[in-house]
Amino acid sequence: MELIDQVSINALSKKDLLLILKALEYTHENTGLEDFIDLRNSIVKEICFLTETAEIDFINYLESNN
After folding, report:
1. Residue 12 resides in a domain
2. Each residue of 16-63: pLDDT tens digit?
3. Cβ–Cβ contacts within 10 Å for residue 14, how many?
4. Residue 43 half-sphere exposure, CB side, CA atoms within 13 Å?
5. Would 55 be classed as within a structural domain?
6. Is the pLDDT of residue 1 over 60?
7. How many distinct structural domains can be found in the chain?
């Protein structure tokens, strides 16, 4: 189980990360379950904090060249 602590998003491409975020948004919109949008927002918030990037800049970066 110690390997789970080392899981990261380093291996995810921009396209894959954007797809995950969009899937969470879509699922929230179609189910009304807040857990999905909360998870999406949590992921974005954490990545923006770690990269010192504004959310809009991060999303624009992911959407560029896709």
Report:
1. no
2. 999 999 999 999 999 999 999 999 999 999 999 988 999 999 999 999
3. 13
4. 17
5. yes
6. no
7. 1
